[in-house]
Structures are given as C-alpha cells and as structure tokens.
C-alpha cells in the first residue's frame, strides 16, 4: 500500500480532487478509481467524489494499492509511421485489440508497443501510453505516448485533435451532413451503445461527414467522417441511427448489410494535432487496408448485360447460340414473342378480340403471315401490337437478367432484334454491352428466302421497320462481321467472350484507381 499525502496550496484551490492528486507516477484514471474505492480522505474524512473542488489548507491522503498489473511485452507486427522521444504514430491493423480486456487478455497493440518500446514498462496499468482507442475491427492511425507526462499532455487537449475516418456505409447519405444525437449505453445489451436523451443518461456527441464516392446503383457510399467527440462506437451508432449502417458491422447493421463485408468498414484515415512540446502542427494520413476497396469494388460488380442486335438475316441467332455453347445464358426475344402468339396467350386473346378470327389459326394461335399482312396495311394496328409485345418482352428480359445475376453468372446475353427501335438504349441499368451482327444485304436476303421462305418484298418490308444497318453500327459497342463462313462466326463469338472479360477487368481497375485517388 502506497500513501500520497498532499497539502492544498492557494494555487491548487478550486481544482478537482482527482486533478490535484494525479502526477507523472499516477494517472488521473488511477486516482479516480482509488477515490471511488474509498481510498481517499480529506482532513481525515472519507471522500468518494473525484470531482469535488479542494480548498486551501486541506490535507488530502490517498492510499494506492500495489497491484501486479504490468503487461507482458510481446513481439508482433507493428507498422510505425512516425515517432519522436515522446510519441509514436502507428497503423493499427483490423482485428487487433488496442489493450487487454476480459475478452482479450493478450496479443494486443499495447503489448506490441511494450515489446518495441521497453520504457513503457515504467507506466502503470493495462494500457501504458495509450492516448485513445480504436475498436478491434477498426483499422488505421493510432497515437501512443512513450511516457506518462506526454500521455497526460495529449489527453488534456484531445478534443482539439482532428480525427477523420473513412467509412463504407449502406445507402446514399447527403453529400454532407452531421449528427448530434447523444450517446449512452444500451439499456439491455451491455456491449452496445444507443441514442438516449441527455435526460436519460446520454452524453453529447457530434459527428459530421462528407460523401466521397458512391456505387453506380447508389446502394453503398464512402464517407469521410470527422468526430468532434470520442464516444464509444460513435461513428457506428450515429450512422446506423440515421439509416446508413457500416458494411460488416456485426453490432449495428442488419444482416443483409453486415454480410457484405468481413468486418466493419471503418478506417482511421487522418490525424492532426499540435505537438505539446514543440507546438508544431503534426499531420498524418494512412490509406485503408485492401479489404476496404476490395469490398467497395465487390459491391460495384454487376453481371455484364449483353445485347445482340442485327437486321433480318444477319445471323444474330446463330451468333447467340455460339455464345450459349461457350457457357453464357441466352434470352431470345423471338422465342418470347412466339410464346406470346401461342394459343391461350394474352396477346393472342387480345388480337382475337380486336380482329376476330381473321388473324388466328384454327387452334387459336396467331397466324404470323396473316398478322404480317395486316400490320403492313394498318400502321395503327402494327403500332398497338408492337407496343404490347415489346412491353411483355421488356419485362421478360429484365427478369432473365435479374435471375442470371442472382445465380452468379458473370455475363448474360439477350438477343433483342428491335432493341434500338423500341428505344431501350437508356432503359436498363447497368447499361448493356451491345453487339451488332451484320453482313451484306444481298447475303441476308438470300438467307431469308432460302431458310425461311420469305420473298424479297417481305424481307424489304421487315427491313424497313428497323434502323438502317449503318445507324445500328454507330450505336453499338462492337460490330461482328458475318460475311464469312460458320467457323468465322464461331471464332467471333470466342473473341467477343474475351472482349467481355477484358472489359470487366478494365472496369475493375478503373474503379480501383478512382477509389485510390480519394485517399492519396
């Protein structure tokens, strides 16, 4: 048992009891615990309030129990970004606890610091030199003091330290915003914090942010977050409270959000403080570990939507079959329309009601030859039927792409001959990669007449209902030349498959560069 005896001087009068008792050998936190434990007397009377103001002439006695609480030094990875004789700034990796606690009594950052800086053994307690803390799964900048006076000096001015974090959150917060909701312990879950009123035990807290980046679908955003107070889990609780929980946050995010990352996506990015001994402004920054941009890019990854177009007889269906043989799922608008014209379908029923039985076969299915003739003569009828059929096809192709993406396909192909004529260029998200299959008009017409039994007049009419081939070429991402033989078209399918793969890789690289530029 060590006794500390103190006579209160005029200079000390009016200060808190725990403040006048602390010194280089005994931190304020240690003093406070001793007072609350009944180990302090003022003028011989037990005093249990650390915050009481002392008066001139009072005699204060503090009894400190000697404990064997010194840490065992450990060797381990410790990335130091800067140090001088008083302080050190390190880059704490995720999943490393800052100091020992009941759930993690060893293998902590504090023990690694002790292994690198033996002089920290002169400090008492389980967290020698620790000025502030980061949650176990939060990575980034952490400042530690190498002696108790330095720790006390930084602790006193810690509210003036500028602390910026990178946070990957669910949703699309405003470009800039703040939260001033008070924070306090959760009423039923001891490991969580909550947002109680000040009158119910909440402590003031202030968090502000700027949005740096968001995914194309606006589902995830990267924020620069500055905290003006240092409450436990402050960023995590404030953002979750506002509806923007951190990806991977096991405490405060709903399951669908926490499953999107292996840990809470929070990184202590920037640190700025005034050196208490040199009065120099110290500024540090540290890029996030690779799991944060990797997680952001994974959210951005969408299945590649591919559209195949081409004028009648160009060979687009054959090209789509080659892609299907190479492993890509394929949707055919022609097959979908055929099902719409089948017996008992909604479109066949509508045509029967409008036109009677003139456009239907005996079994109730649409007679395509009769329909073509009617549409050729009646532009209003043609417009109505196209509008109805195209609406059904649009819903079906969106459902196809959604299903294939859910199944994990890297790309899926839709053969949509009238993609441009329907005005779908800006309809789908993400925007499809469009390939135009083409060959000279005489060759196309010859194929249509030999394979489908069309005459030249019918081929010309159907051709006139589509964009000219040159216009389609201009609007597409790539043109596939089908003027060669079957083997050449199969080779072109393999080339397109590789092109799609390289395009996905390049998109990923560009997004990684875009993200990296934000914190460099």
From TrEMBL:
SMART domains: S4 (SM00363). GO terms for cellular component: cytoplasm. The keyword Cytoplasm applies. The keyword RNA-binding applies. InterPro entries: Depp_CoAkinase (IPR001977), P-loop_NTPase (IPR027417), PsdUridine_synth_cat_dom_sf (IPR020103), PsdUridine_synth_RluA-like_CS (IPR006224), PsdUridine_synth_RluC/D (IPR006225), PsdUridine_synth_RsuA/RluA (IPR006145), RluA_PseudoU_synthase (IPR050188), S4_RNA-bd (IPR002942). Belongs to the pseudouridine synthase RluA family. ATP binds at residues 313-318. Its EC number is 2.7.1.24. It comes from Candidatus Desulfovibrio kirbyi. Pathway: Cofactor biosynthesis; coenzyme A biosynthesis; CoA from (R)-pantothenate: step 5/5. One of its GO terms (biological process) is coenzyme A biosynthetic process. Its main location: cytoplasm. Residues 15-76 form the RNA-binding S4 domain. This is Dephospho-CoA kinase. Catalyzes the phosphorylation of the 3'-hydroxyl group of dephosphocoenzyme A to form coenzyme A. It catalyses: 3'-dephospho-CoA + ATP = ADP + CoA + H(+). Signal peptide: none annotated.
């Amino acid at each position: 048992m060590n006794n500390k005896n103190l006579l209160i001087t005029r200079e000390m009068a009016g200060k808190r009891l725990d403040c006048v008792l602390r010194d280089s050998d005994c931190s304020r936190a240690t003093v406070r615990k001793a007072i609350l434990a009944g180990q302090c007397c003022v003028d011989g009377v037990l005093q249990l309030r650390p915050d009481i103001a002392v008066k001139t002439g009072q005699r204060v006695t503090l009894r400190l129990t000697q404990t064997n609480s010194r840490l065992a030094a450990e060797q381990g990875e410790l990335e130091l970004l800067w140090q001088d004789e008083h302080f050190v700034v390190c880059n704490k990796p995720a999943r490393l606890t800052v100091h020992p606690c009941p759930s993690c009594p060893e293998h902590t950052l504090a023990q690694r610091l002790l292994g690198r800086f033996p002089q920290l053994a002169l400090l008492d307690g389980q967290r020698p030199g620790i000025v502030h803390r980061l949650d176990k799964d939060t990575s980034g900048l952490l400042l530690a003091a190498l002696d108790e006076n330095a720790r006390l000096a930084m602790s006193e001015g810690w509210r003036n330290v500028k602390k910026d974090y990178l946070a990957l959150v669910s949703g699309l917060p405003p470009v800039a915003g703040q939260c001033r909701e008070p924070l306090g312990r959760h009423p039923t879950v001891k490991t969580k914090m909550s947002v109680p009123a000040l009158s119910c035990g909440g402590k003031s807290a202030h968090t502000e942010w700027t949005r740096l980046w968001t995914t194309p679908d606006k589902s995830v955003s990267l924020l620069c977050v500055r905290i003006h107070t240092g409450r436990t889990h402050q960023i995590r609780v404030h953002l979750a409270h506002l509806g923007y929980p951190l990806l991977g946050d096991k405490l405060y995010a709903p399951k669908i959000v926490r499953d999107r990352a292996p840990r809470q996506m929070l990184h202590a990015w920037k640190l700025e403080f005034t050196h208490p001994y040199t009065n120099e402004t110290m500024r540090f920054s540290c890029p996030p570990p690779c799991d944060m941009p990797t997680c952001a890019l994974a959210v951005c990854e969408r299945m590649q939507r591919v559209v195949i177009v081409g004028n009648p007889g160009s060979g687009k269906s054959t090209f789509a079959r080659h892609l299907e043989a190479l492993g890509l799922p394929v949707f055919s608008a022609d097959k979908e329309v055929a099902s719409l014209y089948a017996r008992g379908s909604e479109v066949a029923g509508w045509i029967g009601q409008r036109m009677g039985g003139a456009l239907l076969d005996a079994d109730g299915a649409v007679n395509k030859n009769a329909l073509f003739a009617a549409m050729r003569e009646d532009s209003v009828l043609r417009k109505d039927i196209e509008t109805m059929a195209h609406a059904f096809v649009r819903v079906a192709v969106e459902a196809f792409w959604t299903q294939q993406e859910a199944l994990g396909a890297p790309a899926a192909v839709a053969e949509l001959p009238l993609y441009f004529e329907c005005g779908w260029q800006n309809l789908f998200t993400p925007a499809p990669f469009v390939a135009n299959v083409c060959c000279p008009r005489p060759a196309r017409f010859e194929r249509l007449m030999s394979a489908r039994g069309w005459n030249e007049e019918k081929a010309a009419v159907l051709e006139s209902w589509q964009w000219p081939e040159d216009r389609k070429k201009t609007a597409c991402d790539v043109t596939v030349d089908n003027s060669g033989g079957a083997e050449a078209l199969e080779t072109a399918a393999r080339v397109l498959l590789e092109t799609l793969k390289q395009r996905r890789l390049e998109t990923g690289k560009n997004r990684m560069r875009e993200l990296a530029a934000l914190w460099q």
